[in-house]
Amino acid sequence: MRVVLAEDEVLLREGLCGLLERFGFEVVAAVGDAERLHAAVREHDPDLVLTDIRMPPGHSDEGLRAAVELRRTRPELAVVVLSQYVEHRHAAELLDSAEGRGVGYLLKDRVVDVEEFIATLRQVVDGGTAVDPQVVRQLLRRRADPLGRLSAREREVLSLIAEGHSNASIARRLVVSDAAVGKHVGSILSKLDLPPTDEGNRRVLAVLAFLRGNG
Q1: Is it true that the peptide bond before 57 is cis, omega within 30 degrees of 0?
Q2: What are the C-alpha distances in Å from 200 to residues 30, 126, 207?
Q3: What is d(CA 97, CA 153) in angstroms, rounded to the nearest whole number?
Q4: Domains and CATH numbers, the chain
Q5: Residues 11-53: pLDDT tens digits?
Q6: What is the rounded CA–CA span in Å between residue 85 and residue 107?
Q7: Could you list the residue ranges that cross the membrane (predicted)?
Q8: 130 forms bridges with which residues in the sheet?
């Protein structure tokens, strides 16, 4: 898999390059700002972009804005944002692009397993969705009013859905039957006007659909 990496911290950039290449990725370009990120994507047409949020010249959200623009012009391009924090203004726009397929938002300090991290990148390249649960929780808190339609139990189930738990896993955690969880999930989708989506990313995509417009 061909990767364009965007990270302004030199040591971290070099470390990520070495890590990716050790697991069979080909880093075709490693850049330190959003302008060169765009140029590298145009030149190399990669399978995956892995980018930080804060980059020169402003060290604010240049990397995330670049990711949003890349997804707008190349919706088939897999993009993973790897950041130290949640940037609310454009996060939902990025995650909702291309119906949430081939996109990820991971927090650096929560990546503790290298092999799991690599597996997540491969999942995104294959069209999957990878969102750190903390990112989802923060975005959900910014949309408190629609959640008011849900009961306390439904909000609890939605939180677990956002973290990627299956119905069976949710049932075990809440000590209820699988059928009860299924009813809660159906009620959540109905109350939030979220129709079922394709298999594989259905549950995370439902949460991302709820976040649409929260840019």
Answers
A1: yes
A2: 31, 11, 14
A3: 30
A4: 2-131 (3.40.50.2300), 143-210 (1.10.10.10)
A5: 999 999 999 999 999 999 999 999 999 999 999 999 999 999 9
A6: 6
A7: none
A8: 104
